[in-house]
Fold each of these.
Amino acid sequence: EIEIHGRKLARTWSLLSRTASAGSTQLFLKDDPVAMGWRPGDRIAIATTSRGESTMHTIASIGPPVPEPPGCPPMPWVKKSCSVNQCLVLANNMLNRNCDFYCAQSGLKCVAAYEEVNDDCNVKAALGCGETYPDTWDLLCECEAPPPSEEDAIPADATAVHLEEPLRDEHWGGFRDVLGRRFEMAAEVINLERSVLITGDHDDFYTTNRGLHTIITGTGFADIRYARVEYCGQRDLMGRYCMHFHLMGKCPKCVFEGNSIVDSAQMGITIHGTHDSLISNNAIWNARAAGIYTEDGNEMNNLI
């Protein structure tokens, strides 16, 4: 019988309630970070909502927000946002078009225009707002931000998660209007920090793809909650998973709840020949296989 219980988090993940721009160091979450049990020093991960990547960050502090400059509304043809206020963007579909035309589509005024370098935010040549650039499909266009609306204003009592590292890319948050309908389209933010750490070999994990593995089999049960399992799983070896219920039969006491699995060379969580278990509120980051896996397909009455 195995029981491992770390410090409980009221929630292990949330959603962005406001869009976070590239370069920003603060996040606004749908749920109160303090009430969720999140703390400064916690490592968190933010899912991509663009051509960028999901990234990991460290919480520097949790508290009142820092005022942000007025921002631009979502604009068309954006390949990449290049400023915190989302007014400088790398725009596509710009062959024989200029930034005056681009900004006017959103009811805005162009204030600067550039030819970019290699699909990024670096400047190759400065242009006039009414100037085109020969044989290019992409331009950097900077539009003038409109005055902030009441809807865009940050509430005075808002709580922000402040990051040690700035965001590399824009991450959507809150709701968006799509073809006359309103949808919540927001990045997931997951907390990967736990008070109990189960860790594998750090030295050559990325070259060998051989980390630790855990397996619960035979009689008894395992109840593991709010632990972090990292550098785990063994590539191409069946049964060598980060967290694994193996042929436990009917096991209502088998629980994996609130754990974080970070950097896995195999399945994150495997349920094999096990029934009636609980797999709940786990966060899996950078698993190089399935996140949660029922191995035979005949596993019954597991609550996932």
Note: The longest strand covers residues 55-63.
Amino acid sequence: MTGVADIYLMLRRPQAKESRLRFSAMLQQKHQGMQRFVVLSWKRSGSNLLCGILTHHPEIIMHNELFNPIDIFTYHPDSLMRLDCDQNTRWTCLARDLWPKLFLDQIWSGKYTDGSKIKAKGKAVGFKSFPDHWKDANNEIVHDEVILGDRRVKKIILSRECELSVWVSMKRAEITGFYMTKKYPRNLKIEIDIPAFQTFINNYHFTFQRKYKSAFHTNDSFRITYEQLIDEENFEKNIAPLLWKFIGVNDMNTIKRLKEVSK
């Protein structure tokens, strides 16, 4: 949409969420820092695999589950010292949930407290997010406004085509407590609760079809599937160059992977 069209939409439908987001985006100035991005996904959908690829790119500063209710997970723990306090104070879950915008401002800088870049060649900075990260802390409005509602934040939306595989993987992890690389016992059996599984499918579809759809999705969103990730030849030849261009980093980078962890 053009700027004039955005104003027209706002005047015609001032109560519509999309029109409000588009109008507010017109007032957003371009930031003078690194490209911001977020990997929007769901548990057991290949996010560790994708984040491993992203973090190996020399121009990408990739954090992990920064808004996980349990802890702040990142590949760069030294970057979590607070800029607004003395140098011995680290961001905690409580402080993060109380001041999420202040926390994000520091993350988006891509720098340590001394002002140096986390990566010398860093051009983009991001983290991954699941729906429950924001709901558990009652910060969904921050997610909607600061991430989905900000067209300056690129959205990489990662889903898995086979919902049954997601469900089974989640149940295996819940039963065994194994979430990273460990193999599951051969005799492990999963009982499928049909009503619960149907509820899961409804939530999964709603999340990827509605919740993760920004008002500017044609410009600020890049969709990818787990199945595309594990097809290494196709990913490296056809998907990765588009992804690098979308984020704004060197598209000649050699792909490096962590061990694949979602089964």
Note: The chain has a mean pLDDT of 85.
Amino acid sequence: GGAAVAAGSGAAAAALIIELEEGRRGDAHVGAGKSAALSLSRSLSPRVPVPRRFRSVDPNCMSRENSATAAASDADGGAAAEAVRSARQARAKAANSGSCQGLPPGGDLRPGAILVGDRAECIEVRGLRLSCPGSGSGGRALASVPVVQDRAYWEVHVKLVTAELGSRLLVGVAANIPGGAGDILQQELGATPRSFGVQFGAGGAGALKTGDVLGVAFDQAVFPVTVTIWHNGSLVSAPLPRGLKGEMWPALFLSGCAVDWALGEEHWTSSKSCPDGFSALMPSRGLIGD
């Protein structure tokens, strides 16, 4: 009888895990499950780690996957462990479904002071890795700080192209409109005022392939400002940007691809990538405590 109860509790935990991951349960359920999850983690074998939700993690790494571990119960450790393992196997099978679990494994860049800021809901973020797996409408993402120096340089490393013909990536800059101004985060760079982007893939300035490195140099030392793009070290011919005034933020538009956003000098493919007179993005005054 006790074994059946434990098995039933384990199955219930697995069901709740799946519900949380699919967004059918809100975060209100997570707090109640915290102590139970911690108790379970102590009773399981060493192969089942402490849930990441209760570790210190970068805020950009939080996702429904972290919330899912709160579904642990007080059931027998063996039965609950089996339920957790089953749930993990189900997640692995759904790796290409377009959720956070569909991101390429890992994340080559260690986040620094500058992270990913506002972005469209369709874009999944883990540290400095961004993904918009589907080849549908796509969405924008901005860095967490504007360009505060005269000349700045950053890179975008293409890690995965999920739709050969439909995938596209735009790199450039945009104003950060408070609250996203409606559907502005769903608009391509250049489709709205105070934004500019050069497209790769889907008939853009160049093909989009896994392993591509795009360099972006933004110069606001003189007016009008300029944006220069390199594709795997080759200068890209692009129209001059217009209407870029006020604070501008590094920006991307993704659809059907995953990229690493190399916002710090330590992330660049080579120190020689940066043109003379340019430097890595600087944290805003609020981030450096001035």
Note: The helical segments are 2-21, 28-43, 64-68, 77-93, 285-288.
Amino acid sequence: AAAGSGDGLGPGIGGAGGGAGGGRSGAGIGGNAVGVSGAAAVGLRSTSPLCSVRRWERSVSPSREPRAAFAREPRTSLEGRNGAQSDDGVGIRSQRERCAMKLLLPQALAGAIIGRGGTVIGELQRSCQVKLFVSQALELHPRTQCRVLLARAETEEALNEVLGRIVDQLACLADEEPSESIFWEGMLKLSVLMPRAVVTAFIGRGGINIRQLCKDSGAEVKVREPDATAAGAADPAFVQKIDIRGEVAGLMRVLREVNHYVQAVNGEAWFVNWAASPMPRAAASDAAA
């Protein structure tokens, strides 16, 4: 698979040869991906309130619109305490919203997180004290079929809380409408975007950090090779795609670690622009083309 591909298991960090990090896939540092570890089958029935909202929506509207209808949703966020809006519809980043994370959402998951009329995303923002922005239907991350979710909050802990709710929603969706974009070989799938500036530290010298993370979480973690030919590839804010597969608890363990590394650089000058919108204008135009 090409580097940065959507749902496949393509090249990662390193060259040819065997690697550490065992598990079913058997690949690790120096193989086709960074730090792979096995995981058990997932118990997917979720008791999340978000699942209840979605089940209620179906019960009162059996002929609901197909998920493709969610593709017409604009960037979505409800006005919060700092509800100023920029001219492209994305809220201006408040000084207090110093923390940010970006996730990739297959269309089905994007629709589930937005909810009918924005009900689910509104509940997430109110209960977790975060702001959430989802890229428009044709604004897909390059070489994927995924929209980008930007989450902004005052604290790292608030982001961890909303990440947990999103993983609950992912499990609920995989339970009710499983597809390869969110569920593969008995494991949930989710991808995040990490600034290039922190990827090396996240992996660790010789892959030691990511191997330990896989061991502790039971999840599979793969860091995709960046596209060296892409515009801005040398910029510290240039993103690399991190693919995660595992159980709910394993996904959350990895997401918390990613969040911690990303917030370690949220004081850097380039971070303000990185956290200003789900994806750069240039990337959105390329994806639409």
Note: The first strand starts at residue 99 and ends at 106.
